[in-house]
Amino acid sequence: MTRVNLSKQHPAAYQAVLALNQEAEDAVARAGLDAKLAELVKIRVSQLNGCAFCLRMHTRDALDKGESTDRLAVVAAWWESQYFTEQERAALALAEDVTELPVPERHEWDTGALDDAQVSAVSWLAIVMNTWNRIAIRSGYPVAP
Length: 145
What we know:
67% of the residues lie in helices and 0% in strands. By secondary structure, it is mainly α.
């Protein structure tokens, strides 16, 4: 498969995604969601999409924000662990819904742990992360030690 660096081929589109990313990050902050929760959402979306570049970047970002290695180790099976709060569990389930677009639609995340602004913020964050995963994967961003 031919790899084309999408950001270099169409820099204006890349800049638009950067602006959308900033809006999603701002929505997360305005909704009162923790920065570590945002990184967990980015990591889970990247796990589902198989994006090694974004996984490495957001795992490092999460560690820099004080996330524990134990929680990062189990985020792929968050529902089986007792590491995550009700709000984090709802956000991770919602991010999975946004990423997988299940049919019929499931609402496991709809427990009341997230208010409307937080549901919207997590949804936008997952949408943007899905976009970044696709850019990184299609561009063949290198992931080497």
